[in-house]
Fold this sequence. Notes:
Radius of gyration: 22 Å
CATH superfamily of the largest domain: Type I PLP-dependent aspartate aminotransferase-like (Major domain)
Largest sheet: 7 strands, mixed
Order of helices and strands: HEEHHHEHEHEHEHEHEEHHHHEEHEEEH
CATH architecture of the largest domain: 3-Layer(aba) Sandwich
CATH class of the largest domain: Alpha Beta
Strand order of the largest sheet: 3-9-8-7-6-4-5
Structural class: alpha/beta
Number of domains: 2
CATH topology of the largest domain: Aspartate Aminotransferase, domain 2
Number of helices: 15
Shape: globular
Amino acid sequence: MELIDRLDRELQSLDARNLRRRLRIVETPCAPQMRVDGRPLLAFCSNDYLGLAAHPRIVDALRDGAARYGAGSGASHLISGHTRAHALLEQRLAAFVAPHLESVRALYFGSGYMANLAVLTALAAPNNGDAAIFSESLNHASLIDGARLSRAAVQVYPHRDTGALATLLAASGAATKIVVTDSVFSMDGDLAPLPALLSLCERHGAWLMVDDAHGFGVLGAHGRGALEHFALRSPYLIYMGTLGKAAGVGGAFVAAHATVIEWLVQRARTYIYTTAAAPALAHALLASLDIIESAEGAARRAHLQMLIGQFKEALTLQRWQRLPSDTAIQPLVIGGNDAAVRVAAALHAQGLWVPAIRPPTVPPGTARLRITLSAAHTHDHVAQLAGALNQFESLLETEA
Length: 400
């Protein structure tokens, strides 16, 4: 078939450029030490930043949730799928972020992707096309897709360039303006300048939507994320946090002024037209929040920060570039696709699982290792990885 042949040729083109992705089969719970495709590996690639994905208290809560509510919700939230577990989780999440948002309410989604699409498409809707979205150039794919689906006018401003954004906002006459940004950029690990962005939004009457996928649970003294890290509070903020990374379970939530959330309930298609997530997940997330807010959560965040500092100090690289990140995401830019794949393969041969990230996820010529650290890692784990990287840089050929 010509249709199949055409796809085969495209796949061969990916192979020729070292861009084909592959699935690996994990046979054990998410943890630093896992069994993958039949062999043990020390993993530095999950987003389980606090090491909660296999925490016994959360596993027990998931089991209890299934016993109480069954395996599935059975319907969308607005039909019959909105259970007591979902309602309790939303109340708890609203209270968790309440110091940073006014008249706050929270809404639980099945994934961060769905949450981002919901906010951008629903907020752009009320003005019949008279809406503008100002999107950070390194935003996550879900934000890019949400902006496209919104049918609003979209303008992209350069990475962390508040001056360029100020110019765009000043020139816009749109009735609804939405500035949207990641808080922690998933491939670079750096932080958005949220205080400056919020100041611009308040000056120009724009919403600031913050995707805190990689900050929730990790940043801030109490794990309340980027808003706590920067001590922000404003009615202009719309906050999205994911619950499958630091919280260790799954799904996401949007928190904002109660009027914004009610509008999402009425107009967000990715909330209205999908089956609600299993209530057992929401029940388990209550246990996650207990841990995040507790002394144990604080200790895990402190340990993670020590590991980040240890990793940065242990590297003695001369040609590869560690991007300037103080977060759990520690990228090493290798350069060419072939070189990044070779380094990842060499690490894999030593039992270290670090993914090679290539275009289109990152720009051409910036293929990298995306190293993620977890509170479940030990100092010995980090020393082993840093030692291997220092050794391989001196042994393997690299590309500019």
